[in-house]
Amino acid sequence: MKSTIHEHQKNNFKIVSKTFKTIGFIFLLVITISSCSTPPIPTPTPSGCVTTGTDFQQLYSAVTALPGHSNVVTYDSEVHSYTFHLFATKTVCSIGYQSQPAIAATPYVIEIYDNTTSTLVYTGSHVFSSAATSYVTISSVTLVAGDSYTIKRIQTNWGTNIGNTIGRLVRNNTGNVAFPQVYGNMKITGSSFYQNAGTQTNWAIPFIDIVFQ
Questions:
Q1: Which end of the chain is less enclosed by CB atoms within 10 A, N or C?
Q2: DSSP, res 132
Q3: What is the pLDDT of residues 182-201, one digit of tens each?
């Protein structure tokens, strides 16, 4: 009788032991499968507003490097502007400009006008550094591929000296800049300097950096 009970206990122990081994094997199998599964694809980070190496900067540098062209600060007119179009629809995220020291605290008006639809798509009053090109944030301004746009830098609060309206530009030393000028997504088709001065058309390209996201 004791022998039968002992055998029964041994059988129970074997069953329990086998059960634990089975559970352990399944547990290890689950861990192995989980560790070998494909990791989740990370959510891409939205591109930032990068103010270095912009299409405009590259285009401006290329024109400056042409024979007989130079990067200067000149022309005292209240409006400096250029006309352009894009090869792909883009959202404007920033505008870059450099003011004159005598009016460093005075805002400039920046306008972007859609010539194709006769619509003013952006206007804003901004203060820029006089030490170097500085940037202001622009939001919710989308420019459509193929439409003609004009960007203007307007300064009417120049005090008693119209010379305070001069600005950085690239010019041809013996005539007009040849248009169009193209780099990357941007094609500049012309320019104009006017208001409270003689009008100059297609004479130079003002440094008004437009940055896209």
A1: N
A2: S
A3: 999 999 999 999 999 999 99
